[in-house]
Design brief:
heterodimer, A: 8 helices, B: about 280 residues, Rossmann fold, 2 domains, six-stranded mixed sheet, four-stranded antiparallel sheet, about 20% strand, disordered C terminus, binds adenosine-5'-diphosphate, binds magnesium ion
Chain lengths: ~250, ~280
């Protein structure tokens, strides 16, 4: 029985946790400041990996696209293909997966350790709400950082594509940019993808703070919670991606 | 004082106990952690809870701070029933208690200064220069002036405990709860903490409750001691009286004997499969 009710009650707890966090939103100066601090910490943590991965994804996408398009003599369309798939799918999804592995895990581990070392309890005893003080800023920072990181990932991927298509394959730079400019729509492609990444950011960081907060306060408990964060948030990102794509486009 | 009857407890003169626990029962699942505990703790006193690990000492502190609610019986602090407080009342109540948790529980991402300033920022509107003065005076009171910019991981165990102590008393509470404040410290640090607890209790007119395993330190420090074993109060009294007690449970604990009424062997729970625990 536990096997079936367990996950359902966990999901319920997680949603309640979200409401408890949102009830703590104040827009006060100190709260905004901690959110910005966390955005800086969480964003900066993921910056390098996002940039490197974005660049190489852009290169390999162009390589495959050119290979395929060449058969129809359409390799000058490469920027369109790369751009569409990047902005709509690969940018948001890959960034989210990388974010889950890089920042999600460290949020869970950090909060879990705070719990294991009684810091959370100490806060409650000082009449400070740890959900508002610890969980909320990290959650908000996740919602803010993922779209920003996605934009950065996309930019670096385009750069990778430029380097490979124009630099290596000697395609015409003018055609490359004009196809990109006329073929990619701001609303459909760019905003559509950005909107997804906001949802992904929320999902990952909710799971990360919730798992950290509900981790068993031991070394192995924190380890398990950290693993669960990556696994569950990666799976959910892919599921939500399909749902949003099929309903919203 | 022994002559005073129950009618006196209605008005809050200094003789009424500041903490009054009656027939307290606390369970976790099927396991009864505390089973009918009663105690009166008087204003200004230093009281110890001793007993084997897992006896429920920390649980008593958590029932007093309102983190846990009793299944039966009552806990009153200053004449207020803790279990009937709303969340908001509880928050307010907690400003008047300082807690030193096991290992100090300093916030690892904040400097020493910010650790001590946290409760002040949260609960007062003091301007920054005053906060600074308050924090610095508490830091030098624990003998650690000049370390305010360090991070917790740069402190020794004894220093961390003293910083946590400064943080716990920064808002001048009425009651201090200490959970194993001396465990894991070297002898000098132990004496330092003991002296701090004693002097602060006197200087601020506090009431202090201390969970400890250290019989020697307990005798040097406290006015009254409760020995908790097998979910009940196995013995109580002033340290001098406990020392000469003929009660076998008290004698066993005070002198660290293996043989005695306090069981050495772990007793497994009665539910055979453990499915419902
Ligand atoms: N969160 C918890 N869940 C279940 N059992 C607990 C929990 N906390 C403590 N206990 C149990 O309650 C009993 C008393 O614990 P505690 O008050 O921490 O003991 P002490 O501080 O005297 O060592 C122990 O047997 C412990 O296993
Ligand atoms: Mg304990």
């Amino acid at each position: 029985m536990e096997r079936f009710t367990g996950p359902i009650s966990q999901a319920g707890q997680c949603v309640l946790f979200l409401f408890r966090m949102l009830a703590g939103v104040r827009f006060s100066g100190s709260q905004v400041l901690t959110v910005l601090q966390q955005t800086y910490l969480i964003g900066a943590r993921s910056l390098v990996i996002i940039m490197i991965c974005g660049f190489f994804v852009g290169m390999v996408l162009s390589l495959q696209a050119i290979n395929a398009l060449e058969q129809f003599g359409a390799s000058d369309q490469v920027s369109l293909l790369v751009g569409k798939s990047l902005f709509r799918e690969l940018g948001p999804v890959l960034t989210a997966l990388l974010f889950a592995g890089r920042a999600g895990t460290s949020i869970t581990a950090e909060i879990g350790l705070m719990k294991a070392t009684n810091q959370i309890e100490a806060m409650e005893l000082m009449a400070i709400d740890p959900i508002q003080r610890i969980a909320l800023p990290r959650f908000a920072a996740g919602v803010i950082s993922v779209p920003l990181l996605t934009a950065l990932f996309n930019a670096l991927a385009i750069l990778g594509s430029v380097v490979f298509s124009i630099g290596v394959m000697d395609l015409d730079a003018g055609i490359f940019w004009s196809k990109l400019q006329t073929g990619i729509y701001f609303e459909q492609d760019f905003l559509g993808g950005l909107w997804k990444s906001v949802v992904f950011g929320g999902t990952i960081s909710l799971i990360a703070v919730y798992f950290g907060y509900s981790a068993k306060p031991t070394g192995s408990g924190v380890g398990t919670a950290t693993t669960n964060t990556v696994v569950l948030s990666s799976v959910l990102v892919l599921i939500f991606d399909f749902i949003m794509t099929s309903f919203l486009t | 004082m022994a002559m005073m009857n129950d009618s006196m407890t209605d008005n809050l003169d200094s003789e009424a106990p500041i903490i009054r626990i009656r027939d307290l029962v606390f369970r976790r699942g099927r396991k009864t952690i505390l089973d009918g505990i009663s105690m009166d703790i008087h204003r200004g006193s230093i009281v110890a809870f001793m007993g084997p690990s897992g006896a429920g000492k920390t649980t008593i502190l958590r029932l007093i701070s309102g983190q846990l609610r009793p299944d039966e019986g009552s806990v009153e602090v200053n004449g207020q029933l803790i279990s009937s407080m709303s969340d908001r009342e509880l928050q307010h109540f907690r400003r008047n208690i300082g807690v030193l948790l096991q290992d100090g529980a300093l916030f690892t991402d904040l400097t020493v200064f910010e650790n001590i300033a946290t409760p002040v920022r949260e609960h007062t509107d003091l301007p920054e220069p005053l906060i600074r003065r308050l924090v610095m005076s508490k830091l030098s009171a624990v003998g650690l002036g000049g370390i305010e910019e360090r991070m917790p991981h740069e402190l020794s165990g004894g220093m961390a405990r003293r910083v946590a102590f400064a943080r716990a008393v920064v808002l001048d509470p009425d009651i201090m709860l200490y959970d194993e404040p001396m465990t894991g410290l070297d002898p000098i640090a132990v004496s330092t903490i003991r002296t701090l607890m004693r002097e602060t209790n006197k200087a601020l007119g506090l009431t202090s409750l201390i969970v400890t395993h250290n019989v020697t330190q307990m005798q040097l420090l406290v006015d009254y001691c409760y020995i908790i074993a097998s979910a009940k109060v196995a013995g109580e009294g002033r340290p001098a009286d406990l020392n000469v007690s003929t009660d076998p449970g008290v004698d066993q604990f005070m002198n660290g004997k293996v043989e005695g009424p306090i069981p050495f062997h772990y007793q497994p729970p009665t539910s055979r499969w453990g499915l419902l625990d």
